[in-house]
Design brief:
The protein has 689 residues and is of the alpha+beta class. 43% of the residues lie in helices and 17% in strands. The strands form four sheets. It has an eight-stranded antiparallel sheet with strand order 13-12-11-7-6-18-19-20, with helices on one face. Strands 1, 2, 3, 4 and 5 form a five-stranded parallel sheet that branches. Helix 1 crosses helix 7. The mean pLDDT is 93.
Length: 689
């Protein structure tokens, strides 16, 4: 078993690590340098685990904790990473591509041991350490002693053999209150003592300390309002979805370190709703993480380029056998926690914004998935979604998501935080009435026409679902501040056939990456061409888009067409000059947007969904998701990327009805549909300022 003879194995591992460190210290050859660096790192991690266990860590001063935290991550911080064997380019230069990619991937995997010792989950720190020892023995003295197949097999079987335990542990962390220690730890925190930030093992910077201090400085009423926007949105999601919240017992909160005082308030408000909270760490191990996404609780990023370089490490191990093993492990985990899964209400997500836009450097040594592996990944995603829906039925669960700024936003952080509170608590009833006017104009239309201005070359025709009975049905969702905070959009699933034209935007941020002069062409709803101006070479720009928006797929469908109505959010971004730092959650509300990939109803197409006026939303599937019953691996792409055009780049958005009527919604960047004029007030104030 995973935890058999744990103390004995740990002792032997530490002895062997100490021997390796002593044998390789000061040696200049790459093999010795890699073994020495990894051995010293793991010894430091296990020593930290011992100090946590015996209480030594909790007696450290704040400066001492800062120093120790930085030391644990020192080898991968900017400046050090460029010389580290965690960097695929460095490892491949030293050991050759086939061996180097595996050595870099395992070295990256070792970073996850930090969090595990802080959680007291020693077995999950020991498993990758033992794998390192096995690989180090294979290459010790001369890397050429071990074949590339031997090195790869060691890594492959580590990932495969530990998949059952890692997947079961993560499933339990999500479903079982108290399985992960974070909820109880937060409720017991003394937030005035910033040492609490260093109790999880996540990387901590001065920005997290400043954030925690700012949250500490808010009065109880402000904390209550912020928490209430979140928990009330979650409750309303069940109410508007006609789902029974009383059946649910748990909710999982996902957040960034520094917000703990606010999270404590949310935990208590959820308790008042009859829900216990689970909190689990963002996955640091290959078997559970998905690319470089952060899902769960997380700290600061020690190195964004590093995460980008390792987003496709699964290319080193992904095959049909591993897919089947992961699916089997997921099914087994849900079987173990069947009752807890039925009681799980869904996630409550606190997104953040403020970090500078990231423009990655293309690392030529980073692993890349093959076409066959891309298909396997789609199969894995579709099958995992089906398994999850079987144990946590989509028609019975919900979610909510909200976004808050972090100090990286700049010197106006405190003002921006206060304005974000206002933005996240806008009047739902006002927007419901305004957005109903827009949905009524669009429901029944055969298409929408979108054109750009001021240098924007957008010219799109989006085909819309036909509505048979406008009294009981709608093709657009009137989206309020429930599952998706702040308020402010109407959206639909486009009909792919007949959706044609060009989408253009001068500058946009997608999945945390910047794109200049982005152009995407559609033919029958599918991406048929694309270009961006980030690079001198057109081919580099295409590769950048293909890897990070198409995710290696040759094409993707337009999965969503929406009109953002939150002109307050648009003015907010312009007023502070932070448009490029707004998360997609807010940015998508600041203009029309078009999503590439799956629809907004992915894996939930069979759930009946209603607008606040009682009309059922019928545009829930497209030509791909319609295949979900027969060929689920062909139904979903497991991605959804919103591309938003700001109001000032829009010439016109018009609804065109089958009888030829044209109903203008936006003209020259202003709302012109009768009953929506109030949305122009923030735009007018912005222009007058």
């Amino acid at each position: 078993m995973f935890e058999d003879n744990l103390e004995e194995r740990l002792g032997l591992a530490k002895e062997r690590l100490a021997e390796f460190a002593a044998d390789t210290e000061g040696k200049a050859d790459p093999t010795s340098r890699w073994i020495f660096a990894a051995s010293r790192f793991l010894l430091d991690v296990f020593q930290t685990g011992k100090e946590i266990g015996d209480g030594t860590w909790d007696r450290l001063s704040l400066p001492a904790m800062r120093e120790r935290n930085r030391r644990l991550y020192a080898g991968v911080l900017p400046g050090a990473y460029e010389k580290s064997f965690v960097n695929p380019e460095v490892a491949c230069a030293a050991f050759g591509e086939e061996k180097g990619q595996v050595i870099a991937a395992l070295s990256y995997e070792l970073l996850g041991t930090i969090g595990r010792v802080f959680e007291g989950k020693t077995a999950f720190a020991l498993a990758p350490a033992e794998t390192f020892l096995e690989m180090a023995c294979a290459v010790k003295g001369d890397v050429s002693r071990a074949s590339a197949d031997e090195i790869r097999d060691i890594f492959y079987w580590f990932v495969s053999d530990t998949s059952d335990d890692y997947i079961e542990d993560r499933t339990a962390d999500m479903l079982v209150p108290g399985h992960a220690p974070f909820t109880g730890w937060i409720l017991d925190c003394d937030f005035t003592d910033l040492r609490f930030l260093y109790r999880t093992g996540e990387y901590v910077t001065s920005a997290q300390e400043r954030l925690a201090a700012a949250i500490n400085g808010l009065d109880e009423e402000q904390i209550r309002r912020m928490a209430s926007a979140f928990t009330e949105g979650y409750r309303r999601g069940f109410e508007l979805g006609r789902k029974d919240l009383s059946k649910k017992c748990t909710v999982s909160i996902r957040y960034e370190a520094g917000f703990e005082r606010l999270v404590a308030g949310e935990i208590r408000q959820f308790q008042a709703l009859g829900l216990e909270t689970t909190i689990y760490r963002s996955a640091a191990n290959l078997i559970n993480r998905r690319m470089d996404a952060r899902v769960g609780f997380y700290g600061a990023r020690p190195n964004r380029q590093m995460e980008y370089d390792h987003r496709y490490d699964d290319a080193l191990v992904l095959d049909a056998a591993l897919v089947e093993r992961k699916l089997g492990a997921l099914t087994h985990a849900y079987e173990l926690y069947r009752n807890e899964a039925l009681a799980f209400g869904g996630p409550a997500v606190m997104d953040t914004f403020g970090e500078a836009a990231f423009s990655p450097r293309r690392n030529p040594a980073a692993p890349v998935r093959s076409v066959a592996q891309q298909k396997l990944d789609r199969k894995l995603g579709a099958a995992s979604g089906e398994i999850t829906n079987r144990y946590i039925p989509g028609e019975e669960r919900s979610f909510t998501i909200i976004a808050w700024p972090t100090p990286q936003i700049g010197p106006d952080f405190e003002k921006i935080l206060a304005d974000t509170v206002r933005l996240n608590t806008l009047d739902n009833e006002l927007y419901e009435k305004i957005q109903q006017k827009i949905t009524e104009a669009l429901s029944g239309a055969s298409c929408a026409l979108i054109t750009g201005r001021a240098g924007n070359s957008t010219s799109l025709r989006v085909s819309l679902y036909p509505v048979a009975d406008r009294k009981t049905q709608s093709s657009f969702e009137n989206c309020l501040a429930d599952v998706n905070i702040p308020v402010g959009e109407v959206f639909t699933t486009p009909v792919l056939k007949g959706t044609n034209g060009v989408l253009n935007v001068s500058r946009v941020y997608l999945n945390g990456l910047a794109y200049d002069d982005l152009t995407v062409t559609f033919e029958d709803g599918m991406v048929s061409g694309y270009a961006c101006g980030n690079f001198k070479s057109e081919q580099e720009g295409k590769a950048y888009f293909r890897e990070n928006v198409l995710f290696g797929n040759p094409t993707l469908p337009m999965g969503e067409f929406a009109i953002g109505t939150n002109t307050e959010a648009y003015a907010f971004g312009r007023r502070y000059g932070i448009e490029g730092k707004l998360p997609i959650l807010i940015a998508e509300k600041t203009g029309p947007h078009f999503a590439l990939g799956d629809t907004c109803y992915s894996h939930e197409e069979d759930n009946h969904t209603y607008n606040p006026d009682g009309r059922e939303i019928i545009a829930r599937e497209n030509d791909f998701s319609r295949k979900r019953a027969q060929n689920p691996q062909d139904a979903y792409f497991n991605c959804h990327t919103d591309i938003t055009i700001p109001y000032d780049e829009i010439e016109e958005i018009t609804a065109v009805w089958p009888d030829g009527r044209r109903i203008p919604l936006i003209r020259d960047g202003r709302f012109v549909l009768p009953g929506t004029e109030a949305l122009n007030a923030p735009l007018d104030a912005l222009h007058e300022a």
